[in-house]
Amino acid sequence: MTRAGSVAGLPDTIEPGGTRSENHPWKIRLVKHPKRFESAFFRAAKQTARKIIAEMADEDLPYGPRPTGSEHWEMHHGGSLWVRAEGGWRMYRARVGIEWSMQFCAEPWRVDRLRRDAAELVAAFPLTLPALAELGYEEAGDLLRTPVEDADGVEAWTDSLFNACVPMSRGNHQGILPKVPGEHHYPWPVKGADFVRYEDFQLWVTLPDGTHGAVTPVDRRGSGDGHVRLVHAPEGSRAAGTLAEAQDLGLMAVLPPNSSTALQAFSAQIEPGQRTASGPLATRRGRGNGRRPA
Known about the structure:
Structural class: alpha+beta
Number of helices: 9
Number of strands: 8
Mean pLDDT: 85
Largest sheet: 4 strands, antiparallel
Number of domains: 2
Shape: globular
Strand content: 5-15%
Distance between the termini: 34 Å
Helix content: 25-40%
Radius of gyration: 23 Å
């Protein structure tokens, strides 16, 4: 059931082609991690972020539902630009986030560009600084006004509310497949789809060689096209070379509707036992049907 613009006449399997490799012996030493120093900047930022989150409605949280049970929010150094809008708190992402360990290779003038970006954004939301001061984060104004010129400035910015406080569950922060893909281990252009995809589409799948990758549909919902595009395959996967070659050539690496990969991806959208992912949406649909949660 293809239509104009969808993919047709594709091969049944992904075959590596035109790839080369060489052996380069290497060793990695596993050593004890130096005790991580939690700066006063980070402690203040985390406390403020938790107060902000407590004020937010569930539907306004940036990345998934609140942790339950013994779980708790983890604060990701991902470029967290918190502002207070008329309707409440909002979080935007900076052009880049500075992970804690990355501060040691961060050039001050480049970090200062991030500070200037943040200052410009906050200036567009004049409720922000008074609201932060009310929460006890009075250093926000100084952080936004003070140029980053040395390692001390880099540290202060890295551990500030405007970089270090993207709230995520442990899985979304640093999880590894087959359980939950975390931002630390999977490319953000792919991982980010977890927060916008239909719940009945399986983004992360098991590839035929047992490794885990990510796929997307090749056409819009309801088109009937069950092909899937491979968008992530780990190094060492049999599909990794093909995916790299496709990217080099400006092509897509696509798997057919009857592949195990496509059947996994569309498993909640097709009837049980169906042997192809192509066709109309299954009538048995619950969550992920395109409606906003109540």
